[in-house]
């Protein structure tokens, strides 16, 4: 009897509240001031099962080992997110769309200026204070393979802590950024 009541209550809770199995992303402690913007072509179609490929750009300088790690983190996170949305990686000749991405960082420096007077003279002093964060952006662009026109653009902006960040925290930041960016992909 008690088991029957328990299942009746459970069924009512699930029926009224729904069942949301989507995993909610948690903001990593090393990010703040997050904003996401997306734009797309209303005519663009992204049918499930479509194939994609990453666009790689030639670099005019040798990339560091850290840059290689960053690229690997971003591509792995994008691939995982696209896979959960029903898209598959493919060869350039057979894809429906290309995925291009870039990152940007801007270091912030505050300059504190003070004016004082001593012995009848005015003194101006300035102190340069580097912040303990950088402003960063991850830009992802989806390009139609037939027309070679951009059809979707996402921009993730955040302040990133410069405090000691381990590899797992870096991966969490990238996964969070990609999750937030691709919430609205494909557009409905």
Kindly list the characteristics that best describe this protein.
six-stranded mixed sheet, Double Stranded RNA Binding Domain, alpha/beta, 3 helices, 188 residues, single chain
What secondary-structure arrangement, pairings included, does this model have?
Blueprint: H1 2-17, E1 31-40, E2 51-54, H2 65-84, E3 88-89, E4 97-118, E5 121-144, E6 150-161, H3 167-181
Helix pairs in contact: 2-3
Description of the structure:
This protein has 188 residues and is α/β, with parallel strands linked by helices. 27% of the residues lie in helices and 39% in strands. It is built from three helices and six strands, in the order αββαββββα. A six-stranded mixed beta sheet has the order 1-6-5-4-2-3. The model is unreliable at 1-22 (pLDDT under 50).
